Amino acid sequence: MKDPENYAFETRAVRAGQHRTHEGEHSEAIFPTSSFVFENAAQAAARFGGTEPGNIYSRFTNPTVRTFQERLAAMEGGEACIATSSGMSAILSTCMALLKAGDHIVSSRSVFGTTTSLFTNYLTRFGVPVDFVPLPDLEAWEAAIRPETRMLYVESPSNPLTELVDIRALADLARSRGCLLVVDNCFCTPALQLPLALGADIVIHSATKYLDGQGRCVGGAVVGDAERVGKDVFGFLRTGGPTMSPFNAWVFLKGLETLSLRMRAHSENALHLARWLKAHPRVARVHFPGLEDHPQHELAKAQQSGFGGIVSFEVTGGRELAWRVIDATRMLSITANLGDTKSTITHPATTTHGRLTPEQREEQGVGESLIRVAVGLEAITDIQADLARGLDG
Question: Does any domain span residue 22?
Answer without folding.
Answer: yes
